[in-house]
Specification:
Helices cover about 45% and strands about 10% of the residues. With about 400 residues, the chain is an alpha/beta fold. Strands 3-2-1-4-5-7-6 form a seven-stranded mixed β-sheet. InterPro entries: SAM-dependent_MTases_sf. This is Methyltransferase type 12 domain-containing protein.
């Protein structure tokens, strides 16, 4: 709709002054910012001059923050988050085995037995022609390992290994630098988690079963990408730990449901050999499921034997599984607190005191604490004070 002529004139009268004001403001703005856009002499000199050798030190108080280590145990918040993700994606627990298989769209469901049959029939998964049957596989692996039959060899879900690791690592306050020995690591259901957590060469294992060793070394370590960790896994069944070295000291030694299958006499032989390899005070031994090798002797006799070995019974622990109904009982032992070794300075002071006929500082403290007579006590106090 066209405006009336009067309205048009009024609009022009109002627009021209507004435009003039706008142009004036823009010119003023350019005038103000123009000097800052052009390089100043100081800036020009700084850009072209050689760098100065004068350093100004400014003291700044900072707070150094170190990234917290990855948690060992799954927290309740982690479980709640996962459940929320399952719910938001409509992934409830399936009610039956048939319901599970009905969801397998685009997947060729085969049992381990069927997979093994195909692998053996085709000499591998990729069906190489006969003339190329000897292909370039770096680590030829038996079909039984490729279909992971060893995951079913222990009577409970493979996932239980994570539960054992979490419990032991927390109970022993484990750090990546600690040295760990597992007696009977099998196919590394538990050991894999320790190997991944620890620094290289910090995990040792004594295992007697050849098939378990094959699964551990030929499949699990390569499949998990843990070969670089260089765990030391030794075959043996007589509690012979000599191949691990004479000087090695362990922060954690554990046997998960292993002593069930070993004669009591051999168990005590192993404990006797390991007690001297347990790091004083900090070292821990954990035995799961039972201590029949001890309880069959009677409480007093067991305590006596442990004491002779330098071991102390700490207590019984239980832990639950994260994924399935299961708990395990552990008995914990450690070496009791030992008297701290004397420092070189303390030894030197005692030698000097003995040469001069004075009691050593430690002996003087003992005499003074015992309430000696006044003359001797006064001399000892002067001695301890450094006046004599």
């Amino acid at each position: 709709m066209a405006l009336p002529s009067g309205a048009s004139a009024t609009a022009r009268m109002l627009t021209v002054p507004a435009l003039l004001l706008l142009l004036s403001s823009a010119a003023l703005l350019v005038f103000l910012i123009l000097p800052s856009l052009s390089p100043s002499p100081a800036a020009h000199l700084c850009a072209c001059s050689p760098p100065t050798t004068t350093h100004t030190t400014t003291t700044v108080t900072t707070t150094t923050t170190t990234a917290s280590p990855a948690p060992v145990t799954t927290s309740p918040a982690d479980v709640a988050w996962l459940k929320s993700q399952l719910a938001s994606n409509s992934l409830p627990l399936l009610a039956s085995h048939d319901a599970w298989h009905r969801l397998r769209k685009g997947i060729n469901p085969r049992t381990r037995e069927q997979q093994l049959f195909d692998i053996n029939r085709h000499h591998g998964i990729s069906h190489y022609p006969d003339e190329e049957a000897t292909n370039h596989t770096a680590l030829p692996c038996p079909g039984e390992l490729l279909v992971e039959e060893h995951h079913s060899n222990y009577g409970e879900p493979w996932a239980g290994g994570r539960d054992v690791f979490e419990f032991l690592a927390n109970a022993s306050a484990l750090t990546p630098r600690d040295q760990v020995l597992e007696i009977g690591c099998g196919t590394l259901r538990v050991g894999l988690h320790f190997i991944r957590f620890l620094e290289a060469a910090k995990f040792h294992c004594l295992e007697r079963d050849e098939l378990s060793l094959m699964a551990a070394l030929r499949y699990e370590l390569p499949a998990q990408g843990l070969l670089y960790k260089r765990p030391m896994i030794v075959r043996g069944e007589d509690m012979d730990f000599s191949r691990f070295g004479d000087t090695v000291m362990y922060d954690l030694i554990y046997a998960s449901a292993v002593f069930l299958h070993i004669p009591d006499k051999l168990v005590w032989t192993g404990l006797e050999r390991l007690a001297g390899k347990l790091r004083p005070q900090r070292g821990r031994i954990f035995v799961s499921h039972n201590i029949k090798f001890c309880s069959r002797l009677g409480g007093d006799e067991c305590t006596r034997r442990l004491t002779e070995l330098g071991l102390e019974y700490v207590g019984k622990h239980t832990h639950d599984s994260l994924l399935f109904n299961h708990y395990e009982i552990w008995w914990q032992h450690h070496t009791p607190e030992l008297v701290q070794d004397k420092t070189a300075e303390e030894e030197e002071e005692e030698e000097e005191a003995e040469a001069e006929g004075w009691p050593s500082p430690s002996e003087a403290e003992e005499i003074a604490a015992a309430g000696a007579g006044d003359p001797l006590e006064r001399v000892l106090l002067l001695y301890l004070d450094g006046s004599v």
